[in-house]
Amino acid sequence: MNQWLDDLRTATAFLTRLPMPHPDGARTESFARAQRLFPLVGAAIGAAIGLFCLLLRAIGVPDLAAAALALGGGALLTGALHEDGLADVADGFGGGRDVAAKLEIMRDSRLGTYGALALVVSFAAKLAALAATPNGLVVQSLIAAHTLGRGVLPWIAISLPYARKDGLAANAGRPDGTIAVVAAGIALLIAILALPFGSALLAAIAAAVSALVMALVAKRQIGGQTGDVLGGVEQVTETAILVLLAARLG
């Protein structure tokens, strides 16, 4: 039980800006193991964003504005960790001439044209989807999207080689197959509990397809994964699920 609590603290500290005590004796292996609880932390993030959105709607804020403010609040909660990854991936893949150039651009903290466009498209899609989602499904949809979006990350981590030997992905360590299975199982269970079964199944399929497409693109572009790639996977997956659920349930 202590190990699971340590993993929860580690996952929460990494995925959010919440102050969490650092587990004793934390090592690279500990962080890799903690990825099994990424979906659980994702569910909490989605619930917080959804409840904030409903609160804003309840006090009369228009749906579009409420969605924008809730998504902005979510970015503050997570430190825009995955959004930063998406922007870096778009800049690197779009602007680099070869693998070395792409990786160098991805290291650059400055935001380029491709990154800005990727963030605008992603935010606009999530904004429109959330604004179109009925009150009774706002929290559930966000829980499913954030849960499944993080539930696929261990699979990407074990499926792709490291594009470089240093950086966040390499330093974080690679989870094993058991961790990936546990993470996927938790994510799917939470999605099934949050949504009607058919919608949960479609959301899970959307997550798998989105992650697979991103993995194939990353393999082709830079030969593997980086921390930015994992962030981009989460954002693409989350966006796809929110749009799908808004179309199906809205």
From TrEMBL:
Compartments, record wording: Cell membrane
GO process terms (BP): cobalamin biosynthetic process
Pathway: Cofactor biosynthesis; adenosylcobalamin biosynthesis; adenosylcobalamin from cob(II)yrinate a,c-diamide: step 7/7
InterPro entries cross-referenced by the UniProt entry: CobS (IPR003805)
Membrane topology: Multi-pass membrane protein
Catalytic activity annotation: alpha-ribazole + adenosylcob(III)inamide-GDP = adenosylcob(III)alamin + GMP + H(+); alpha-ribazole 5'-phosphate + adenosylcob(III)inamide-GDP = adenosylcob(III)alamin 5'-phosphate + GMP + H(+)
Cofactor: Mg(2+)
One MF annotation (Gene Ontology) recorded for this entry: adenosylcobinamide-GDP ribazoletransferase activity
Family to which this protein belongs: Belongs to the CobS family.
Protein name as annotated: Adenosylcobinamide-GDP ribazoletransferase
Species of the source: Bradyrhizobium pachyrhizi
